[in-house]
Amino acid sequence: MFRTALGVAAATILVMATGWTQQAPATGPYKILRAAKVGGDGGFDYVNVDVEGRRLYIARRSTPPQISVYDLDTLEKVGEVPMTGAHGAVIDHKSGLGFATSTPVTMFDIRTLLPIRKIDTKGNPDGAFFDPFNETAYILSHPSPNVTAINGRDGSILKSFDLGGAPQQAASDGAGHVYIDVAELNGIEVVDAKTLTVTGHYDLAAKARGCGGLGMDAKNHILFAACHNPASMVMLNSDTGRILDTVPISPDNDGMVFNPNTLEAFSSGDGGTLSIVKEVSPTSFVLEQDLPTMPGAKTCALDTKTNHVILISAEFGAAPNAGNGNAGNGNAGKDGEKGGRGRGGAAKGQVLPGTFTILMVGK
To answer: pTM for this one?
Structure first.
């Protein structure tokens, strides 16, 4: 492929600045706008944004553990929530409270970044989702109880319940329905946000198994589920569960966001690819782009003000037991330290000090 001298120079500068290499960007509108090597030690898992407050929250398994907080526009660090040891954090900007998925959950003040109280949700808090519909934080745990709903205004536990398997990601239609995908069930559980009860199950096994990432076009009542076998994005009607279409995407997919402003779903993969599926119409979908990102950039977040997608990763040392036939099983560990979250990512060694990087993707 012909490349201009300016394009080669720009690619060279990016490689020198970040310390990692990537293939020439796939054809499409998106590119890496910025790669900020912010450093810090320890592993990582989820990245979360507060669009209104212009903050970026990243859980780090550092010493001591913390939620690192960055300016969403400049990617400069502005503070940290100390001693959380969490996988991620969700924010209720209206109440000024944040909830970090530590064990127990840490509720903190988003203005001072100081912890306020600990909330014992049982299980092992991992992912989380905040639904503005009724200001509820959903804490997701692989062991029982799978879901603990917390009042976003005061931190009280509203209810804990199981889904029949480990929850991966959640989405809301903003009208009283929360959707949570469960990999072992090869489907999506429908939860009534008012009663906090499971009211339905959408089975995806006929099209794909082991679904992880989940996004939603609430206006058009469409769910986007990123699945692993085969690697594909399944689109279905959120009211009926009827499957609308299936589009192949890159393997090792994990995190997912849907941008209602551009009608695009973004699926981030542990192997270093961001798959972008375009909703051409409510019944037509195409793979718009496979953008090379960075190995380990398996989770993502969306800034709906700028339409930027944020990913995180780092450089890794050699995988333990490399060459013994066990590397690449995806079960070496989690939190950006060794392998993915047990969902098929290639095994990796420890995070190399000072290499943690925030990627900003946009047009």
So the answer is: 0.87
